[in-house]
Design a protein that fits this description.
- The protein is an alpha/beta fold.
- The protein has one domain: Rossmann fold.
- The protein is 46% helix and 16% strand.
- It is built from 6 helices and 5 strands, in the order E-H-E-H-H-E-H-E-H-E-H.
- It has a 5-stranded parallel sheet, sandwiched between helices.
- Helix 1 crosses helix 6.
- The longest helix is centred in the middle third of the chain and has 22 residues.
- The radius of gyration is 16 Å and the shape is globular.
Amino acid sequence: MSKEFTVYLSGEIHSDWREQIITGAKENGLAIKFTSAVTDHDRSDAAGDVLGPESNSFWRDHKSSKVNAIRTKTLIEQCDVAIIRFGDKYKQWNAAFDAGYCAALTKPYITLHSEDIIHPLKEVDACAMAWATDVKQIVEILGYVIGEL
């Protein structure tokens, strides 16, 4: 394919999986533009602070989630495929929401997670185009899909 693919990277922010995928794509000469949500936790939590201070954490989170959703919604709608990572340590409710949004848009997505969380993700995986357990599989799938590996 001659088109540059846009891949949205969603999910867990406590490891370097995004960087590993980006590096793997570059090493294999894949024409991919990567996008993502804001991965700096403090910055993401403060996204709505520009709208004024809140004494109640619920309203601070509410405003920040709406500001963050502008970015997330736009980037998911613009991507060709999303990679949705679920880590083992934390529950990524936002990643599950992103997967559901992709499914609603009929936007292809690939899940990335270990075997020990298959059961809680069975519905998310059921709509995914693929389920991978490591970054190397993701890079190989992307290479195949865009016809460069």
